[in-house]
Design brief:
Elements (H helix, E strand, L loop, with lengths): L2 H24 L10 H13 L2 H7 L1 E4 L10 H8 L5 E3 L4 H14 L7 E4 L12 H6 L3 H16 L5 E2 L23 H16 L12 E5 L18 H8 L1 H8 L4 E4 L3 E2 L2 E2 L4 H11 L5 E3 L7 H5 L5 H11 L4 E2 L3 H11 L5 H17 L19 H14 L1 E5 L11 E4 L6 H5 L14 H7 L4 E4 L13 H9 L3 E7 L20 H9 L5 E6 L15 E4 L7 H9 L79 E8 L3 E3 L3 E10 L5 E11 L10 E10 L4 E9 L5 E2 L5 E2 L3 E8 L6 E8 L1
The chain binds 1-deoxynojirimycin (NOJ).
């Protein structure tokens, strides 16, 4: 054994033991676990009857386009009849679903049922806010409810497998897929990941209204260079383990039935063909025992990566790495038989793939109950579903600025302007294939229903509209009103897969129009609907309030109406740092200090540099001359309609050993006139480590409701468990030393204390 391998194996064993320990503590309902003997013997019984061709068939996830109308193609029926297909993606016609399943169950050699999959990402028909918006709720219950309803509705269309949750940590708002992500923080993402899996899979995967979850994209996809989708990822193993893996560990612990590989390479090896990541890390360390599916064509894309010579080589690499099922491309279908005959892939390896897949099919109870129950309508758009979607949109909305303009009163005369005030399709956001515009409530719909005193002039027809012909009408309407409510942002198509942007300002002529509107002297409320943070440094001083609504989904209009008029409070907090401009990206709050940390006293703005200045190094620290070193709004930030004050931080022990815990407490007072809800956040900094540590890390949060004038004490417990990190030797352990700790309203402020962890 080579030294490198040996070292890896030793650490692998140590790390696994540590993880197994954590996993045992955290494990919830193991809906997808392989512990059930009955399931195992059934799996083996079926496997024993299968031919090599049928086994390969199970690894085949066939894609179809949901847009294709007309007859069910004969060749698909024949392939299913021959046992050549194990699962389908995007069959969105009930008759086809039933017919294909009937053929599989009644006519294929071993009657193995199919699984029908779909990207049900933030709702099926009832669309919830985009996942980045849901993350702003900082609320596991909201995330869980959204996926529970998505499962209930979509299972009525025969879907028993969704490609969600997406758990890629995203530190770069240029990346289009940040919209689908849980944001930049591994602690928050882990809480959400667990909640989504529990919501999709329910207490029992065999329930016909539960669907199998798919934690994706494993792994590092959000670290694509420059925020360009599909791009190369280079990262150290400690970074991978400390930041990118935890949400996947949480999803696996929660029983996620499947995992999808990511398109990207990590350190030169595409994940779909990466044996270390799929076998050692995912199965060995994280303890995953469901099945692994490739992303769309990501097997054969290994040729474009320059890792596989051709399709056959791609199949060999994927099979060796432990990929169980291939999405859309056919490298397994075309080559596995030969690869096995040539001894390049073992039949035992293929048997493992089939076992992993059959196990999930059995857990979904598809053998007993392959069809959609007749009485399962999904209650599409049920009152209760819409109410939850509205609640989620309210909890996701982040108030970024408010110069005494919000909430509005019913007597205010409002000029509603902007390209997104009445665009049902756009407010549904990316990955909302099945939500229908006729069921979507826009802000204008909600204002009409609530009899608001408003006049509506778009000014711009869509977010990228560069024409100014609508400006004069918008301006005259604004002049004739008390307040301007501007609905701007990005259309849905500007974020999501393959929709990265290098400039993340408001597109089109929106800034131009806002500047013109500002000249009227009327207060402006800017409501942003977008799939990412939108840089607003060039407009923030021209507007009086900024509300980030993300793409809020089906009930977005009602949620926004309630917030604007103070019927509900904005409760959301930023799950990502909000950049000043795109040149600052990637930006994340949990960065390292560097040898020359940026500090206010040393910051020199480029406008203060004397003309012809001598070549000095200007403050010598890590900042930009034009925008400094802080984000526009920090992670965790969000205002409310009242104010909160933090006092009296106390710590129960100044020193703890590795078996002890301490309690840290602060009091929070609602000093404003309105009742409200604060998100109290706990951050920790490990001052010195065997590898350098982030300047802060989120370790806890609590939603606290406070009546006007009320004070509550909020406490968090900390033990060495919370202080663990993976060091350069891949050991996951806390280290002795001093820690700073903050309780506060966001990642850039709070009351500070400190403690020691001693052996
Ligand atoms: C490609 C995307 O990367 C993935 O997230 C999605 O689930 C599949 N296509 C299937 O649509």
């Amino acid at each position: 054994m080579k030294l490198q391998q040996l070292t890896k194996s030793i650490f692998f064993v140590l790390f696994s033991l540590l993880l197994i320990n954590c996993a045992n503590e955290e494990k919830t309902v193991p809906t997808a676990s392989a512990t059930n003997d009955k399931v195992e013997s059934k799996v083996n019984e079926i496997l024993a009857k299968m031919t090599l061709e049928e086994k390969i068939g199970q690894t085949n996830l066939r894609g179809t386009s949901s847009r294709v109308k007309g007859q069910l193609p004969e060749e698909l029926k024949t392939a299913v009849r021959n046992g050549e297909i194990g699962a389908f993606l995007n069959v969105m016609n009930l008759e086809y679903v039933e017919e294909l399943q009937r053929i599989a169950v009644e006519e294929s050699p071993n009657g193995i049922p199919l699984i029908f999959a779909r990207d049900v990402i933030h709702g099926f028909k009832t669309i919830f806010p985009i996942p980045l918006g849901l993350a702003a709720s900082f609320d596991a219950e909201t995330a869980k409810k959204s996926s529970e309803i998505a499962a209930y509705e979509s299972s009525s269309a025969g879907i028993r497998w969704t490609f969600a949750p997406m758990l890629d940590i995203a530190r770069d708002s240029r990346w289009g897929r940040i919209a689908e992500s849980p944001g930049e923080d591994p602690y928050l993402a882990s809480i959400l990941g667990k909640a989504y899996v529990e919501g999709f899979q329910g207490n029992d995967l065999s329930n016909p209204t539960s669907i199998a979850a798919c934690a994706k994209h494993f792994i590092g996809y959000g670290a694509a260079i420059g925020g360009r989708d599909y791009n190369t990822v280079n990262m150290s193993e400690p970074l991978l383990r400390n930041i990118y893996l935890p949400p996947f560990q949480a999803a696996v612990n929660a029983g996620a039935a499947t995992v999808m590989t990511s398109f990207n390479e990590v350190n030169g090896i595409p994940v779909t063909g990466n044996e270390f990541l799929l076998k050692d890390v995912l199965r060995g360390e994280l303890g995953f025992n469901g099945f692994v599916v490739s992303d769309w064509d990501s097997t054969i894309e290994m040729t474009a990566h320059g890792f596989a010579r051709d399709e056959k080589h791609a199949a060999e690499l994927s099979a060796t790495a432990g990929l169980d099922m291939e999405m859309t491309s056919k490298s397994y279908e075309n080559n596995l038989k030969d690869l096995i005959a040539e001894g390049k892939v073992s039949e035992a390896q293929l048997d493992d793939f089939v076992r992993n897949i059959l196990r999930i099919k059995l857990q979904l109870n598809l053998f007993e109950n392959p069809y959609i129950p007749k009485d399962h309508t999904g209650n599409l758009y049920a009152e209760a579903h819409l109410a939850e979607a509205k609640k989620a949109a309210i909890k996701s909305t982040v108030l970024l600025k408010n110069k005494n303009v919000l909430p509005l009163t019913n007597t205010t005369k409002v000029a509603v302007i902007g390209p997104l005030a009445n665009k049902p399709h756009e407010q549904l956001g990316t990955w909302s294939f099945d939500g229908e515009r006729e069921h979507t409530v826009t802000p204008i719909d909600a204002f009409k229903k609530a009899n608001i005193n408003y006049q509506f002039v778009e000014g711009l027809t869509h977010s990228r509209d560069k024409t100014t012909k609508g400006f004069s009408k918008a301006i005259s309407t604004a002049k004739n009103s008390d307040v301007i409510l501007f609905f701007g942002g990005e259309e849905a198509i500007l974020s999501g897969e393959a929709h990265s942007r290098s400039n993340i300002d408001l597109p089109g002529a929106q800034i131009q129009l806002l500047k013109q509107l500002a000249k009227t002297g009327k207060p402006i409320v800017l409501v942003i609907m977008a799939g990412r943070p939108i840089t607003i440094t060039n407009i923030i001083d021209d507007v009086d309030a900024v509300v980030m609504a993300w793409h809020p989904g089906t009930m977005g209009g009602e949620a926004i109406h309630e917030i604007i008029y103070g019927i509900s409070q904005p409760e959301g907090r930023l799950p990502v740092s909000w950049p000043k401009n795109a040149g600052q990206l990637p930006y994340f709050y949990n960065h390292k200090n560097t040898g020359r940390p940026a500090i206010p006293d040393e910051y020199v703005h480029m406008d203060s540099i004397a003309i012809g200045a001598w070549q000095s190094s200007l403050g010598n620290d890590s900042h930009y001359l034009d925008i400094g070193y802080t984000p526009h709004f920090p992670f965790g930030y969000g205002l409310s309609y009242t104010d909160f004050k933090y006092d009296n931080i106390t710590i129960s022990k100044e020193t703890i050993n590795f078996n002890e815990e301490l309690t840290i407490t602060a009091s929070v007072t609602n000093t404003g006139k309105k009742d409200g809800k604060e998100l109290v956040q706990l951050y920790v900094q490990d001052l010195v480590g065997s590898i350098t540590r982030p300047i802060r890390e989120l370790k806890g949060f609590e939603h606290v409701s406070l009546k006007s004038g009320e004070t509550k004490e909020v406490s968090f417990k900390i033990s060495s468990e919370d202080l663990k990190f993976v060091n350069s030797k891949m050991i996951n352990a806390a280290e002795e030393g001093k820690f700073n700790v903050w309780i506060g309203p966001n990642a850039a402020s709070g009351l500070q204390s400190s403690f020691y962890l001693k052996k």
